[in-house]
Amino acid sequence: TDSVRFTDNTTYLQGTYSYKWFWDFGDGTRDSVRNPVHLYANPGTYTVKFSMISNVGCFSDTANETITVTNIPVANFSTSTPICMGSSIQFNNTSVAPALFGTLAKYYWDFGDGVTQTVVAPASPNVTHVFNNWGNVMPKLRVETNSGCQSLLDSLPLYVGPVPVANFNLPGGLCLPSDTAQFTNTSTIANGNTAGLGYQWNFGDPPSGANNLSTLTNPTHFYNNAGPFTISLTVTSADGCVHDTSKVLSTVYPQPLAAFAVAPENCLNMPTSFTSNSSGSGNAIANWFWNFGDG
Q1: What is the chain's Cα-based Rg?
Q2: In degrees rounded to 5, what are phi and psi of residue 195?
Q3: Beta bridge partners of 138
Q4: Do residues 217 and 199 make contact, with C-beta atoms less than 8 angstroms apart?
Q5: 253 in Cβ contact with 281 (< 8 Å)
Q6: Strand 174-175 versus strand 252-253 pairing type
Q7: Phi and psi of 264, rounded to 5°?
């Protein structure tokens, strides 16, 4: 893909100068300009011949130079996954040097977001990069051999996914043993694709066994003690980007214990005294509901 430039370095006697030039590039082609540029169609070793005629009609001898034309290297690379904004992405070089013609010496990385990096052997050609914005990018790689031959650009279109923001609302006060905790997911993602979000809930209640986990968007959970409980939510986007958060649920209240005292025998049409001996199980009793059994 690269043309070879040839330069006439002939030393002339005073008062003379070149008049005609004869180039033989060794591949069956010729040229008659002083400093030609020639593109070889195939790799290989070529003997280039050059002679000239001066302005006074003198023929020069023939200069011979042997040159080697190599295949260009082939640039190629891959990346780690998932590709998420703010995370370190591994770029792995898989480029190949031309067989029998040198080694790879330089690697020109362009990450497609305005950032470039050049790696010179023997340093590892594999690099990492952090994308600070989400969206489409086109990273590129060009490699160069120790003889200076450069590859064509290799490019790889990538989508950098935004990281979701995990969040949820805790339930209000819960009373044992009958209330069920309702958790409301409020997670968001910058590209708006909430339909592509996956959820992993942990209710902080290992004794509940398999019921301690859920993948529902807005799950419920039944607690049988007052806790407190650490609730965690891990959200994964359609692109594999992950974020998690946790909150403490401390509003699960034990059941109050109702009890009262009354005389075992009471006189008809006379006031009967009832005394509450109830316990709020650690909380103040706010209301009492009596049923005297007589309608």
Answers
A1: 41
A2: -65, -25
A3: none
A4: yes
A5: yes
A6: parallel
A7: -70, -20
pLDDT tens across the length of the chain (295 residues): 678 999 998 887 777 777 799 999 999 999 999 999 999 998 889 999 999 998 888 888 899 999 988 888 999 999 999 999 999 999 999 999 987 778 999 999 999 999 999 999 999 999 999 999 999 999 999 999 998 889 999 999 999 999 999 999 999 888 888 789 999 999 999 999 999 999 999 999 999 999 999 999 999 999 988 889 999 999 999 999 999 999 999 998 887 788 888 888 888 888 889 888 877 766 788 888 889 888 7
Give the C-alpha separation, 45 to 25, whole Å: 11
In order, the DSSP letters of 246-281 are EEEE--EEPPPB--EEE-SS--TTS---EEE--B-T
Strand partners, 143: 107
50 near 58, Cβ under 8 Å?
no
Distance CA 197, CA 241 (A): 9
Phi and psi for 196 in degrees, rounded to 5?
Answer: -90, 5
Polymer length of the chain: 295
Residues contacting 170, CB < 8 A, separation 6+: 183, 231, 247, 249, 251
Collapsing DSSP states into helix, strand and coil, what is residue 34? Answer: coil
| Listed residue (96, 97, 99, 80) closest to 88, CA to CA | 80
d(CA 263, CA 247): 49
Per-residue CA distances from 206 to 18, 190, 203, 224, 231 (Å): 94, 33, 8, 12, 11
Please give the Cα distance from 120 to 138 (Å, whole number): 22
Strand pairing of 104-110 and 168-169? unpaired
50 vs 22: CA distance, rounded Å: 6
| Distance in angstroms (rounded) separating the CA atoms of residues 175 and 76 | 62
Q: Which amino acid is at 209?
A: G
Collapsing DSSP states into helix, strand and coil, what is residue 211?
A: helix
